[in-house]
């Protein structure tokens, strides 16, 4: 077998042979990966280091929407909405295998709401301009109930249909990582930055990186170091200056995953105002329904945030107010929590829904560059702004951004969504070839879901998977779709991984134990 570009040995070798980098990025979520792609396509020698796996944190735990932000429109944040709608259009063009046009229906229970949302969404359409996903339109009660067969008809006046994007977040993260590697970047997971290097003037000049798999550390020099670590932003800022104040306050959002029977059609539902003013979405995703999200300020953060009971109750109670098919706890196939890195509120009166989602770029006195805030939809623009900031500081030569038209690995316009392998885009044929050459790889990992053994092999060889969790949480998404099915599939996945990675039975057992411990948190 030919040596893969994405093999860990190949990437680690680049770490050992490159003495000086132009750009080192800490953090492998949407922001960091976007910056890596922007940087390498401008011609800079680029390295990204992620302490666990790509998109392990916030970037795999989104509501799966590529959107302008209807609620930001209500807050009067026109510029943020316009920017996000533009980026939404580019994502559909550049990652067409993963981003799709999704219709949403806002059910209206009084005529004033109907008028308000019809007018507001016409502005949303106008701001999208040439990159519009489709016009919003008011529909009658009869049409609303025929399209949303599980919606409660009592007091329903009709609905407003609008269009936004829907996607698979961690799959896009992996594909951006692959694109960056193909362009010449070095992108590594399980490589933790443990310290910053500084020159005699106290300017950041590189990082100390620790390869978790081999327990080996590296001193790596760079012209610019970028902190793109999301909810871990403050830890890196405190590596730079141990007196640095916290600038990020994590806000937790949880999602419940239900069977498709709770929302059988092709439309998503958007509830624009819940009891505490938050938005609730019910979105079709991989033949299931994702319901969320909450917005709860937390005082601390972790790699595996835990859903709070009050958040679960809030989502179930709100969904049951609108659906005539009652949701109970036993219907929840998976529950996942994600943390948003919000700017720390100035005082306790500031509510999370009012804190701006626009991104901020901070330059420390040591010239460490930090990017915070933002959202998946604007990842490309955030990257462009961050690299432009490094150029404006004189740290990099002035090269133009090239990502507006950069196709992401796997992009294809021929997407047949009837086969779940469509998410691989142009790689689908290679997975089918694996099965053709070795028919046993066509066996399902679990009878309830379509994922196959071939996808595990592909994830190790070409998508930098190192653990069961990498595969079942972020490559084939089983943990997010049906946590119990993922737990029962773990031994089979461990066996395939061990064979591919040359590991023993002790490693297999440990992997199963580690994964089961994490996966139990996804079971309600």
From TrEMBL:
Keywords from the named record: FAD, Flavoprotein, Glycerol metabolism, Oxidoreductase
Thylakoid as UniProt keyword: no
Cross-referenced Gene3D superfamilies: Alpha-glycerophosphate oxidase, cap domain, D-Amino Acid Oxidase, subunit A, domain 2, FAD/NAD(P)-binding domain
All residue ranges annotated as the FAD dependent oxidoreductase domain in the record: 22-351
Organism per entry: Aureibaculum flavum
Name the record gives this protein: Glycerol-3-phosphate dehydrogenase/oxidase
Family from the record: Belongs to the FAD-dependent glycerol-3-phosphate dehydrogenase family.
Coiled-coil features, chain-numbered ranges: none
Taxonomic classification: Bacteria, Pseudomonadati, Bacteroidota, Flavobacteriia, Flavobacteriales
Superkingdom classification of source: Bacteria
Cofactor(s) this protein requires: FAD
All residue ranges annotated as the Alpha-glycerophosphate oxidase C-terminal domain in the record: 370-505
Keyword Flavoprotein (UniProt): yes
């Amino acid at each position: 077998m030919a040596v893969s570009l994405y093999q860990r040995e190949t990437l680690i070798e680049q770490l050992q042979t490159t003495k000086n980098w132009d750009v080192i990025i800490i953090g492998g979520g949407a922001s960091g990966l976007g910056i890596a792609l922007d940087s390498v396509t401008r011609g800079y020698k680029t390295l990204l280091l992620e302490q666990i796996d790509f998109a392990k944190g916030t970037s795999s735990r989104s509501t799966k929407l590529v959107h302008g932000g209807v609620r930001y429109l209500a807050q009067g944040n026109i510029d943020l909405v316009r920017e996000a709608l533009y980026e939404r259009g580019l994502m559909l063009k550049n990652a067409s295998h993963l981003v799709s046009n999704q219709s949403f229906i806002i059910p209206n229970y009084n005529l004033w709401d109907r008028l308000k949302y019809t007018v507001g969404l016409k502005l949303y359409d106008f701001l999208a301009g040439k990159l519009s996903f489709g016009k919003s339109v008011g529909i009658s009660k009869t049409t609303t109930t025929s399209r949303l067969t599980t919606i409660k008809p009592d007091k329903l006046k009709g609905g407003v249909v609008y269009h936004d994007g829907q996607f698979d977040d961690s799959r896009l993260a992996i594909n951006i990582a692959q694109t960056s590697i193909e362009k010449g970047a070095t992108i590594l997971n399980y490589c933790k930055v443990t310290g910053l290097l500084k020159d005699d003037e106290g300017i950041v000049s590189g990082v100390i990186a620790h390869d978790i798999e081999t327990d080996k550390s590296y001193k790596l020099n760079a012209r610019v170091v970028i902190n793109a670590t999301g909810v871990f932003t403050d830890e890196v800022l405190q590596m730079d200056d141990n007196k640095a104040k916290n600038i990020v306050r994590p806000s937790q959002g949880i999602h419940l995953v239900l069977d498709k029977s709770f929302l059988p059609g092709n439309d998503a539902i958007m509830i624009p105002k819940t009891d505490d003013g938050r938005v609730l979405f019910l979105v079709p995703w991989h033949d299931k329904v994702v319901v969320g999200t909450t917005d709860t300020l937390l005082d601390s953060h972790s790699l595996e945030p835990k859903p709070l009971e009050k958040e679960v109750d809030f989502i179930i109670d709100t969904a049951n107010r609108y659906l005539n098919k009652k949701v109970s706890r036993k219907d929840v196939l998976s529950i996942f929590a994600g943390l948003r890195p919000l700017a720390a509120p100035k005082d306790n009166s500031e509510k999370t829904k009012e804190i701006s989602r626009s991104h901020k770029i901070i330059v420390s006195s040591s010239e460490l560059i930090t990017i915070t805030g933002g959202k998946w939809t604007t990842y490309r623009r955030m990257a462009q702004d961050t690299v432009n900031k490094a150029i404006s500081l004189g740290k990099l030569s002035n090269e133009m951004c090239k990502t507006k038209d950069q196709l992401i690995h796997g992009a294809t316009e021929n997407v047949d969504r009837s086969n779940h392998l469509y998410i691989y885009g142009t790689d689908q044929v290679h997975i089918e070839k694996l099965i053709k050459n070795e028919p046993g790889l066509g066996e399902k990992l679990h009878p309830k879901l379509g994922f196959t053994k071939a996808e595990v092999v592909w994830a190790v060889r070409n998508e930098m998977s190192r653990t069961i969790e990498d595969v079942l949480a972020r490559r084939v998404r089983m943990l997010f779709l049906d946590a119990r099915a993922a737990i029962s599939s773990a031994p089979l996945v461990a066996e395939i991984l061990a064979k591919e990675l040359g590991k023993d039975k002790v490693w297999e057992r440990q992997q199963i134990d580690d994964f089961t411990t994490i996966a139990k948190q996804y079971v309600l």
